[in-house]
Specification:
The longest helix has 29 residues, at 340-368. By secondary structure, the protein is an alpha/beta fold. The protein has helices at residues 21-39, 55-64, 68-85, 99-114, 170-179, 187-198, 229-234, 236-239, 247-253, 265-278, 310-317, 319-329, 340-368, 389-398, 402-423, 425-431, 433-454, 459-471, and strands spanning 5-9, 43-50, 92-95, 118-128, 133-135, 155-164, 184-185, 204-205, 207-209, 218-219, 222-227, 256-261, 286-290, 293-295, 298-299, 336-337. A six-stranded parallel β-sheet has the order 3-2-1-12-13-7, sandwiched between helices. A four-stranded antiparallel β-sheet has the order 5-4-6-8. Strands 9-11-10 form a three-stranded antiparallel β-sheet. It has a domain at 340-471: Isoleucyl-tRNA Synthetase, Domain 1. Helix 15 runs antiparallel to helix 17. It is elongated, with a radius of gyration of 25 Å.
């Protein structure tokens, strides 16, 4: 495959609350794809960060008795810590309160306005603080509530705001979807946004009066208004790579592959693309949409008491155990369930009894029988008994099917277990030691290959396996069996 420059980003989570398992899912999915692209030789700019303006952040800061700047900084550090705890690879961390980003957002506004896509009018509408968005009739459920937050009260706002001419881009957006059938993944989400746009677009508000909501990027030329938070935050995808000051750097990386949750589909696949068209920039390359994480089939909520803290899981069971579950046991595209019982079952079956047990068996024989291999300098792509097995992994990764890629790896783990049972080198050692050594050499080579395949998903585990083979030593157990559940979901 040809080597390329690739730009990959997550969405920027709001700093109005602690990071949750949904954030961890998006970070880990994006990181697995980034590590895969780097593994095969691509140059990657990986972006993440925090979205720090808007009404709900301002309200939370007031409730906490803090200045918004201090509040935002405190929570930004929590998200930085989560990225570190999840072993997210080299990345850029942008904050929407960074001065270069704010300047880029103002320049973006200025160019939209120059091109005739911003106007001012008096407006009365319903505002969802949780989504930081004005709602149209199509956004309401049968009770007249926000579909994403049906338990939250909507705020009716009447004021003079600036508007973006979203309606001007219906035909261009539909052409984008028609001409790029993989623009949104999975295909069902592309059909969803296509149906939404085909149903007609309404211009949307992109400012708030500063006297009512002061926490935002000032509107250029009108200090009485601040930018609507989504308009400001979306610009991070181009400000992070140098727009508008460093266009050579920008041109090196753009367009972008965006990872986002299904509740962000409209913002990422429609509003942001229209905004890019408004300033004459090419659209994003691709948008990968994941579902929500539920617990026992119920959306996680503090009021329900089923919230699971990602920091707690990592501290008790390790980063790679959480990465494994999120990438293999949770669907990459649909809602997935996470409960302590399911986590423990998967951990014991596939980590402790799976890759952990296989590594221990092979390394014990290798050390006892003094079997060594010359470790490859680059990537080796052969699976035991499956000449095209590596293609299953890479094809799945190209399609963002992380669980499918890991299924192929665990099939190889099962193949090596079956090889041990069939050849029984531990018995041959007594009567045919040379044959036993050859069998163990085969096992070591394929265990090394497994470590290569594991790199995007479980990088620490992959490194431990490689070091054990290189150093010709028994590693500490990769995953100790869990005998009882110890974390609290509340």
């Amino acid at each position: 495959m040809s080597k390329q420059n690739r730009y990959i980003t997550t969405t920027l989570p709001y700093v109005n609350a602690d990071p949750h398992l949904g954030h961890a899912l998006e970070f880990v999915e994006a990181d697995a794809y980034v590590r895969y692209r780097r593994l095969v030789g691509d140059e990657v700019f990986f972006n993440s960060g925090t979205d720090e303006h808007g009404q709900k952040v301002y309200q939370k800061a007031m409730e906490a008795g803090e200045a918004p700047e201090a509040y935002a900084t405190r929570y930004a550090e929590r998200f930085k810590k989560l990225l570190s705890e999840l072993n997210i690879s080299e990345h850029n961390f942008i904050r929407t309160t960074d001065a270069p980003h704010m300047a880029a957002a103002q320049e973006f506004w200025h160019r939209c306005e120059q091109n005739g896509f911003i106007y001012k009018k008096k407006y009365t509408g319903l505002y969802c603080v949780s989504d930081e968005v004005f709602l149209t009739r199509r956004d309401l459920d049968e009770r007249g509530r926000c579909k994403n937050h049906p338990d939250s009260e909507l705020t009716e706002i009447e004021e003079e705001n600036y508007f973006f001419k979203f309606s001007a881009f219906q035909d261009k957006l539909l052409a984008l979807y028609r001409d790029n059938p993989e623009f949104v993944v999975p295909q069902g989400r592309l059909h969803e946004i296509e149906t939404f746009v085909a149903g007609g677009l309404e211009d949307f508000s992109i400012s708030r009066l500063k006297e009512r909501m002061p926490w935002g990027v000032p509107v250029p030329g009108d200090e009485a208004h601040v930018m609507y938070v989504w308009f400001d935050a979306l610009v991070n995808y181009i400000s992070a790579i140098g727009w508008p000051e460093k266009m050579n750097e920008f041109g090196t990386w753009w367009p972008v592959i965006q990872f986002a949750g299904k509740d962000n589909l409209g913002h990422q696949a429609a509003r942001w693309q229209a905004m890019l068209f408004a300033v004459g920039l090419p659209p994003s390359k691709q948008i990968v949409i994941h579902g929500f994480i539920t617990s026992g089939g119920v959306k996680m909520s503090k009021s329900v008491g089923n919230v699971i803290d990602p920091f707690g899981i990592v501290s008790r069971y390790g980063t790679d155990a959480l990465r494994y579950y999120l990438l293999r046991e949770i669907s990459p595209f649909e809602d997935g369930d996470f409960t302590e019982v399911r986590f423990v079952e998967a951990y014991n079956a596939n980590l402790a009894n799976g890759i952990g047990n296989l590594t221990s068996r092979i390394m014990k024989m290798a050390v006892n029988y003094d079997v060594r291999i010359e470790t490859p300098a680059g990537i080796t792509l052969v699976m035991h008994g499956a000449p095209n097995g590596e293609d299953l992994v890479w094809r799945a990764m190209d399609a963002y099917r992380f669980n499918g890629a890991m299924d192929a790896i665990w099939n190889e783990i099962a193949n090596l277990d079956a090889f041990i049972q069939k050849t029984e080198p531990f018995k041959k050692w007594k009567t045919a030691p040379d044959e036993a050594k050859k069998d163990v050499e085969i096992l070591l080579k394929h265990l090394w290959n497994i470590s290569v395949f594991l790199e995007p998903f479980m990088p620490d585990t992959a490194q431990k396996i490689r070091m054990a083979i290189k150093n010709h030593e028994m590693p500490e157990p990769l995953f100790k069996r869990i005998e009882s559940i110890t974390w609290d979901t509340a």
